[in-house]
Design goal:
The chain has 353 residues and is mainly alpha-helical. Helices cover 69% and strands 2% of the residues. Strands 1-2 form a two-stranded antiparallel sheet. A hairpin with a 2-residue loop joins strand 1 (189-192) and strand 2 (195-198).
């Protein structure tokens, strides 16, 4: 059985345009980057549904979604960046940097907290531009550039916080003007169908929808795939490689700002050492979701499924009353299994062509 219909003949009997060929539903399904992660997510869900009685409760579902959203908000832009063939090892500490800037600017200026929030947005985007410009100007690997940014931000977060606040954490801003409205936007909670949901879940869903639209319906999305598939070839056909890469790093920075504001307004103080190591979790979520490390392949929906697997695993272990020390083991196993499954799915998709 063939996966596609025979070529559509032209008026003169010659084979017609291959773009007019009908594609079978099976081929389209096997060609989706997130197929492997969806299968994996279903398996993880069924596993914890069996071993943990409380896993299927509505309240537990809200907790799992919240855990997934805190990773998923950053996994979305990291996935787009990986599709574009690049990495950002500074993403984890950039979240903390964003929160620290908001808190310290607001507290030291004794101003409305929205002043700190807006200053933080500008500073965070500037760091994203810095990564993108340095990458395009120096031609160094993004691994090296963002590793350097990671180390600099880690030092700045700790050094400036101790210099300004005298401790490793910021001062509380809970009593400042604008705190309530900012908290409502970044760290509030709403109840839907009797389930308490954090607002970060809505941010996550909105970002996934926006990123999916960009990838599949815009010229910029085509540029991302082209740059990830081969920057030289993309440049040769007129793709603005430099602009695309800088835009992707700015996307990571914007989502880091959103995550940082959630961190700040959830607790009203920030520890300067937070965020270290989270950049690997964002990358893991994207890879589990079907993104190739080599670039040119992946989806925003896949990153969301990868983050959801992370949420189910992290909370499922708790609901099953297992030792949480095993969490990293299960996360590593999920990464390997998902990578192998994604590779198998791609081979099957290629075999049906």
């Amino acid at each position: 059985m063939t996966a596609t219909a025979p070529p559509v003949p032209g008026r003169d009997g010659a084979p017609g345009d291959e773009r007019l060929l009908r594609t079978s539903p099976l081929r389209r399904l096997l060609g989706r980057p997130e197929l492997g992660s969806v299968v994996g997510a279903a398996a993880v869900f069924l596993f914890f549904a069996v071993v943990a009685d409380s896993f299927l409760r509505a309240s537990s579902f809200g907790t799992v979604l919240y855990a997934a959203s805190t990773i998923g908000i950053m996994a979305v832009p990291v996935a787009l960046l990986m599709i574009g063939g690049e990495f950002d090892l500074s993403a984890g500490v950039l979240v903390t940097s964003s929160a620290l800037v908001s808190s310290m600017v607001s507290y030291q200026m004794t101003a409305n907290v929205w002043v700190g929030v807006l200053v933080s947005l500008l500073v965070t985007l500037a760091i994203g531009v810095f990564n993108g410009v340095l990458l395009t100007r120096t031609k160094l690997p993004s691994f090296i550039i963002t590793l350097g940014t990671f180390l600099m931000l880690t030092g700045l977060n700790l050094g400036l916080t101790k210099l300004i606040s005298g401790t490793v954490s910021t001062k509380t801003i809970a009593d400042m003007e604008g705190f309530s409205s900012a908290r409502a936007l970044f760290a509030s909670q709403l109840t839907i169908g009797g389930v308490d949901l954090k607002v970060t879940i809505l941010w996550w869903f909105a970002l996934v929808a926006l990123a999916t639209w960009i990838l599949l319906r815009t010229r910029f999305g085509n540029w991302i795939f082209a740059v990830g598939g081969g920057a030289g070839a993309a440049r040769a056909v007129g793709v603005p490689v430099r602009t695309t890469r800088i835009g992707l790093y700015m996307g990571v920075a914007f989502c880091a700002w959103v995550s940082g504001q959630h961190l700040l307004f959830s607790f009203d103080v920030v520890q300067s050492g937070e965020g270290v190591g989270n950049e690997l979790i964002y990358i893991i979520a994207a890879v589990i979701g079907g993104c190739l490390i080599t670039g040119g392949y992946g989806s925003a929906i896949g990153s969301a499924v990868g983050a959801f697997i992370f949420g189910m695993t992290s909370k499922g272990i708790v609901y099953a009353e297992w030792n949480p020390d095993w969490f990293k083991f299960f996360l590593g196993a999920m990464l390997l299994l998902a990578t192998l499954l994604n590779a198998w799915v791609r081979k099957r998709a290629e075999a049906t062509k």
